[in-house]
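hey
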């Protein structure tokens, strides 16, 4: 599952992010409502963890804007107040679940998993490009009916590329999204993993799906 955390308290956001990453989720974090709306419009997420008390545009306003734009991504609301009226208002605005602060990380993880199970049937959790499929729940990849064995980081790289078909993915972006680095380690780690993934996904198959854009990064797409 790819989850967007919208939380202005950076320490809380960091704790939640690390907890979800440790459970195998792909995680993005923003700290205000405007950035949340922009990212949610550009990226298909499986769930949003949305704090109500945000600077500028608050969480309820973000939630209403999402639903008005027909974005049906499941939303778990977070609030420090925990008042019944606020909870009702959030659920009426289109939230799928509600969790009061302070919360146990184990409970938040369980609720996010539950949102994914309730909201998505198999057609929503299986990514597909040509004859390559990736089940984001079971983490099984197949091409041409053959199972592809993936290490944890190879799986995260493939999921990221398949969620961005036709989009140029630079090395720094891949480091941020797949390795959670906000710096360049000065190695060819990304190239090594892309090469490994290409051997598994493209060798002995047609059409080739992972392409190098020299000096810029990689793109996953069907080319004629």
């Amino acid at each position: 599952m790819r989850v967007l955390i919208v939380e202005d308290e950076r320490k809380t956001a960091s704790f939640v992010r690390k907890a979800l990453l440790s459970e195998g989720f792909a995680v993005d974090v923003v700290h205000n409502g405007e950035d949340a709306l922009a990212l949610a419009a550009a990226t298909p997420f499986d769930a949003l963890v949305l704090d109500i008390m945000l600077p500028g545009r608050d969480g309820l306003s973000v939630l209403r804007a999402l639903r008005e734009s027909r974005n049906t991504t499941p939303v778990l609301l977070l609030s420090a107040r925990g008042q019944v009226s606020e909870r009702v208002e959030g659920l009426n605005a289109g939230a799928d679940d509600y969790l009061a602060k302070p919360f146990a990380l184990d409970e938040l993880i369980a609720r996010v998993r539950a949102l994914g199970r309730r909201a998505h049937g198999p057609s929503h959790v299986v990514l597909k490009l040509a004859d390559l499929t990736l089940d984001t729940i079971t983490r099984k990849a197949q091409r041409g009916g053959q199972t592809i064995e993936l290490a944890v980081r190879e799986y995260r790289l493939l999921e990221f590329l398949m969620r961005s078909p036709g989009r140029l993915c630079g090395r720094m972006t891949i480091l941020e999204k797949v390795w959670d680095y906000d710096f360049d380690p000065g190695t060819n780690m990304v190239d090594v993993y892309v090469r490994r993934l290409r051997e598994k996904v493209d060798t002995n198959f047609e059409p080739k799906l992972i392409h190098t854009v020299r000096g810029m990064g990689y793109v996953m797409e069907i080319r004629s």
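The longest helix spans residues 105-119. The radius of gyration is 18 Å.
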